C-alpha cells in the first residue's frame, strides 16, 4: 500500500463520513419533527366534535375521526422510517464500508472503470449518488465471487459480466483507515486470517466481510426448492445460513418478513449462540425452535423424549429405530391412513355426566356412512357437523331430566339474573365470544331486556334450555376438536397392524421383536411418554386423519444438523411446511443420534422434491480450528480425507493419559489453570450428562459452570458440557474428558469424538485414564503429542 493510496482513500472516507453525518443530523431533525407533528395531530382530537343527534352529524363525526386516524398512522409510519434510517446511519458512522471494487462492463472497455464501496447497508445522498452499496446487492457479489479479471454475477434480470480491475479491503476504526490491502483473490487470506484469529465468544458474529465463494453460493441461491449443504465441522455452514436469511430478507423486502422464516436448530443453547447475527446485520431475528419443541408443543399432555434421553437411551433399539425413522414407514403411514376410509377408525364415546351421550358405535356409524370417495378430512368434517346436530337434538331430551330440575332449584340469585338477562346462544356457535358480547350488551342496557315470563312453565323451559346448553358446551368443543377419535388407541392399532403395511424382514426385525416393542410403547403411553421418533409418527397419523395442511405461510425453512433427523422427520417437516423452500445443513460425520444409516439421508430427503430443484453444495474447507486440530480430528474418521484445513498454525493437540481417574482429574485442573492463564475460554466436554454432573462435583472448587440443560445460557467463563449440547458451538480451548479406551472405543463413537474435537478453535487437550482409546491410536503419531500424567 502506498502512502498516496492511503491518503486518497482516507480523503474518500472523510467525504463519505461527512455525507453520512449530514444525513444523520437531517434524520434527527426529521424524527423530532415527526414526533412534534404526531403530538399536534394527537392534540387535534380535542377539535373533533362529536355530533350524534342527526344522521349527517354522525357521518361528519365518523369522517373526521377517520381523517384523524389516518393522519396519525401516516405520521407514525414516517417516524418509524426515520428511526430505522437513523439506526442504520449511526452504524455506518462507525464503519461505513469494508471493501472497494473497480470494474468495467466488458462491452465498454474504453470507459473509465467504476468504483463501488461495499458495506453493511447502502447509502446514497440527496443527489442519488450511491456512496456505499449493501453487501447483498447483485453487484457486490463480484467481491465475493472471484479474483481480478472477468467475473460473472447474477442480477434479478439475468447474468452479467464484469471485468474487475481492483479489489481492495479495509479495516476502519472510528473513521480512520487502519489497514488497507489489495488482493487478487476472492477474499484475501490475510483478511480471513485476521477474522479467524479472534477469540471465541458466547455469541456468533456476522461474516459479511469475509464470505467465501462457496458460501456466497449458499447465501444467494434463490432457485432451489431444496438446497442441501454438506460441510465439514467448522466449514461455516451455520454462518452461511445466518447471512442467507439476511440476504433473503433484503432480496424479498416487502414480500417476506422474518416471521415467515423458520429455523430448526439442534438445541436451545445454539439458538442463544446465534441470536445476535441478524440484529448485527440490521435485520430482525427469525423464528428458531428445536424439533423437540415443535413436537412437544403440539402434545402438551405427553412428555416427549428429551434431547438427553434421546442421546442416552437409543442403544439396543437400532433396527427398530431405523425402521420407525424410514421413508418406508412414512409411506406405510399414508397407506394405513388411507385404509381408515373403509374401516378401522378408533372412536371414543362422547360422555356426559359419566355416561355415553353419543356412543362410539354411533360415532363410527356416522363416520362410515359417507361415500368411500370422501377424503379423510371431508369425512371428519361431515362427521363433526352431524355430531353437532345430534348434540343439539339432545338439548330437548336433557331438558326433561331430573338433574336439570335440581340445577334450576339450586340457582343462586346472581346465576338466575345472568341467565334471564343475557341473550341466547346456540350450541356449536362460537359461544364464548357470543356470550361475552351478549353480557356486555346487557350490562350496557343494549341487549335484550330482562324477560318476563307468561307462566312458570315457560320460565322453567327457558332456564332448562339455558342450563342444558351450557352443560353440553364442552362436548361441542370436543367434537370440534375431533375429541371423538381415540388417537392413542389409533396409534397403537397402527403399530399392531404394521406388519401388514411394511415388511419388517427388510429391516431384519422379527415379529416377536416387534410385538415386544409394541408392548413397551403401550406401557410408555400409559405413563404419557413417547420417544421422539414415535411422536413424529403419532403426529403425522393425527394430521392425516384430521386433514391438517400444515403452516402454509412459512416460506423458508432451515434445518441445521440434519444428520440428527430421520428421513421420516424430514418428510413430516416437508408435509408440515408445504410452501417452504428448504435449506438443510449437515455433516454426516457428526451424526450422533442416527448413526450409520445417516448416509442415505441425503438421497432420501432429495427424493421428496422435484429433482430439477435440488442443489447440493459441499464445503470442505474448515475455518473454526487451527490446521493442527483439523488434521488430527479428521484422522478420527474413516473418510475424513476430503476435509481441508485452513492454514492457521498453532500447537499440536495433546493426549494426556493418567494411570487412574484421580490422576486424570488432576490433569484437568492443571489444564484449566493453564488455559485460564493464557486467556483461552475452555469447555470440558463429557460424553454423557451423568459424566458432566460427576465431573462438576469433583471440580466444585474450580471456577467452572456446568451446562446441564439446553435451557441454560452459555456462561462467559469455563464450562463443563455434555457432548450433545456442545453441537454447533465453539470454544477457544476444549478438554475432552474420559478420552480413553473405556469410554471411546466403539466404531460408532468415532463420530462423537470427531464432533467434540472439532469444537476447539486453538487448543485441544484429550484427557483419559488407563488405556489409550483405539480410535486415537489410529491417528498418525506426528499429528498429536502424548503425555503420561
Ligand atoms: N467466511 C468466513 N469468514 C470468517 N469466519 C468464518 C467464515 N466462515 C466460517 N467462519 C467462522 O468459522 C467458525 C465455524 O463456522 P460455523 O459454526 O458456521 O461452522 P459449521 O459448519 O456450522 O460447523 P459445525 O458443523 O461444527 O457446527 C465460526 O466461528 C464462523 O464465524
TrEMBL record:
- List every stretch annotated Disordered: 423-457
* Cross-referenced InterPro entries: DNA_helicase_UvrD/REP (IPR000212), HelD_bacillota (IPR048228), P-loop_NTPase (IPR027417), UvrD-like_ATP-bd (IPR014016), UvrD-like_helicase_C (IPR027785)
Q: Which GO terms describe its cellular component?
A: cytosol
GO MF, one annotated term: hydrolase activity
Pfam families annotated for this entry? Answer: UvrD-helicase, UvrD_C_2
Is the Signal keyword given for this protein?
no
Official protein name in the record: Superfamily I DNA/RNA helicase
Amino acid at each position: 500500500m502506498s502512502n498516496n493510496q492511503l491518503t486518497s482513500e482516507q480523503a474518500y472516507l472523510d467525504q463519505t463520513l461527512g455525507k453520512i453525518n449530514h444525513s444523520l443530523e437531517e434524520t434527527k431533525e426529521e424524527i423530532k419533527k415527526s414526533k412534534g407533528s404526531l403530538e399536534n395531530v394527537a392534540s387535534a382530537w380535542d377539535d373533533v366534535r362529536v355530533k350524534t343527534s342527526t344522521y349527517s352529524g354522525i357521518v361528519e363525526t365518523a369522517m373526521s375521526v377517520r381523517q384523524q386516524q389516518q393522519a396519525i398512522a401516516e405520521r407514525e409510519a414516517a417516524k418509524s422510517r426515520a428511526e430505522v434510517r437513523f439506526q442504520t446511519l449511526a452504524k455506518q458512522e462507525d464503519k461505513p464500508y469494508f471493501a472497494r471494487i473497480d470494474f468495467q462492463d466488458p462491452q465498454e472497455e474504453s470507459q473509465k472503470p467504476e468504483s463501488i464501496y461495499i458495506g453493511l447497508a447502502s447509502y446514497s445522498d440527496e443527489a442519488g449518488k450511491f456512496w456505499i452499496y449493501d453487501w447483498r446487492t447483485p453487484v457486490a457479489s463480484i467481491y465475493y465471487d472471484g479474483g481480478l479479471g472477468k467475473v460473472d454475477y447474477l442480477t434479478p434480470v439475468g447474468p452479467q459480466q464484469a471485468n474487475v480491475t481492483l479489489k481492495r479491503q479495509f479495516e476502519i476504526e472510528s473513521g480512520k483507515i487502519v489497514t488497507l490491502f489489495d488482493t487478487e483473490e476472492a477474499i484475501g487470506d490475510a483478511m480471513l486470517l485476521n477474522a479467524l484469529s479472534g477469540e471465541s465468544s458466547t455469541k456468533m458474529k456476522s461474516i459479511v466481510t469475509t464470505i467465501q465463494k462457496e458460501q456466497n453460493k449458499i447465501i444467494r441461491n434463490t432457485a432451489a426448492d431444496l438446497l442441501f449443504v454438506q460441510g465439514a465441522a467448522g466449514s461455516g455452514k451455520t454462518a452461511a445460513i445466518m447471512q442467507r436469511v439476511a440476504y433473503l430478507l433484503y432480496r424479498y423486502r416487502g414480500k417476506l418478513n422474518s416471521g415467515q422464516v423458520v429455523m430448526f436448530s439442534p438445541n436451545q443453547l445454539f439458538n442463544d449462540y446465534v441470536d445476535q447475527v441478524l440484529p448485527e446485520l440490521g435485520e430482525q431475528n427469525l423464528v428458531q425452535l428445536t424439533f423437540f419443541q415443535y413436537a412437544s408443543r403440539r402434545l402438551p399432555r405427553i412428555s416427549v423424549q428429551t434431547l438427553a434421553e434421546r442421546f442416552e437411551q437409543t442403544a439396543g433399539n437400532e433396527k427398530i429405530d431405523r425402521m420407525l425413522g424410514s421413508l418406508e414407514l412414512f409411506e406405510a403411514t399414508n397407506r394405513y391412513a388411507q385404509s381408515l376410509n373403509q374401516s378401522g377408525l378408533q372412536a371414543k364415546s362422547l360422555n356426559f355426566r359419566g355416561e355415553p351421550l353419543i356412543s362410539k358405535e354411533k360415532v363410527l356409524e356416522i363416520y362410515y356412512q359417507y361415500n368411500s370417495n370422501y377424503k379423510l378430512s371431508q369425512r371428519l368434517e361431515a362427521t363433526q357437523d352431524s355430531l353437532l346436530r345430534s348434540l343439539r337434538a339432545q338439548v330437548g331430551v336433557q331438558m326433561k331430566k331430573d338433574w336439570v330440575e335440581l340445577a334450576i332449584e339450586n340457582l343462586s340469585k346472581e346465576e338466575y339474573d345472568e341467565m334471564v338477562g343475557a341473550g341466547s346462544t346456540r350450541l356449536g356457535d362460537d359461544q364464548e365470544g357470543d356470550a361475552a358480547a351478549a353480557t356486555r350488551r346487557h350490562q350496557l342496557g343494549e341487549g335484550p331486556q330482562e324477560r318476563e315470563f307468561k307462566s312458570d312453565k315457560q320460565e322453567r323451559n327457558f332456564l332448562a334450555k339455558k342450563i342444558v346448553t351450557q352443560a353440553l358446551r364442552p362436548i361441542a368443543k370436543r367434537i370440534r376438536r375431533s375429541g371423538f377419535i381415540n388417537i392413542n388407541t389409533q396409534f397403537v392399532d397402527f403399530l399392531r397392524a404394521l406388519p401388514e403395511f411394511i415388511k419388517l424382514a427388510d429391516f431384519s426385525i422379527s415379529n416377536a421383536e416387534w410385538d415386544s416393542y409394541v408392548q413397551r410403547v403401550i406401557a410408555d403411553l400409559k405413563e404419557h411418554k413417547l420417544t421422539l421418533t414415535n411422536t413424529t409418527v403419532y403426529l403425522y397419523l393425527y394430521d392425516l386423519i384430521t386433514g391438517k395442511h400444515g403452516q402454509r405461510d412459512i416460506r423458508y425453512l432451515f434445518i441445521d444438523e440434519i444428520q440428527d433427523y430421520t428421513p421420516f422427520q424430514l418428510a413430516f417437516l416437508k408435509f408440515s411446511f408445504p410452501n417452504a423452500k428448504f435449506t438443510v445443513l449437515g455433516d454426516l460425520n457428526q451424526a450422533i443420534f442416527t448413526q450409520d444409516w445417516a448416509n442415505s439421508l441425503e438421497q432420501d430427503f432429495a427424493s421428496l422434491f422435484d429433482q430439477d430443484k435440488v442443489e447440493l453444495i459441499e464445503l470442505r474447507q474448515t475455518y473454526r480450528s487451527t490446521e493442527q486440530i483439523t488434521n488430527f480430528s479428521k484422522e478420527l474418521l474413516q473418510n475424513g480425507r476430503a476435509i481441508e484445513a485452513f492454514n492457521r498454525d498453532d500447537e499440536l493437540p495433546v493426549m494426556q493419559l493418567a494411570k487412574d481417574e484421580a490422576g486424570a482429574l488432576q490433569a484437568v485442573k492443571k489444564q484449566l489453570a493453564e488455559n485460564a492463564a493464557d486467556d483461552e475460554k475452555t469447555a470440558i466436554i463429557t460424553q454423557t450428562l451423568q459424566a458432566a454432573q460427576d465431573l462438576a462435583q469433583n471440580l466444585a472448587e474450580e471456577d467452572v459452570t456446568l451446562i446441564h440443560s439446553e435451557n441454560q445460557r452459555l456462561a462467559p467463563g469455563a464450562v463443563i458440557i455434555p457432548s450433545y449440547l456442545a453441537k454447533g458451538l465453539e470454544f477457544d480451548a476444549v478438554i475432552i474428558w474420559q478420552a480413553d479406551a473405556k469410554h471411546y472405543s466403539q466404531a460408532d463413537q468415532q463420530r462423537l469424538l470427531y464432533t467434540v474435537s472439532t469444537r476447539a478453535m486453538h487448543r485441544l487437550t484429550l484427557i483419559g485414564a488407563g488405556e489409550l482409546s483405539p480410535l486415537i491410536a489410529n491417528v498418525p503419531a506426528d499429528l498429536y503429542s502424548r503425555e503420561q500424567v
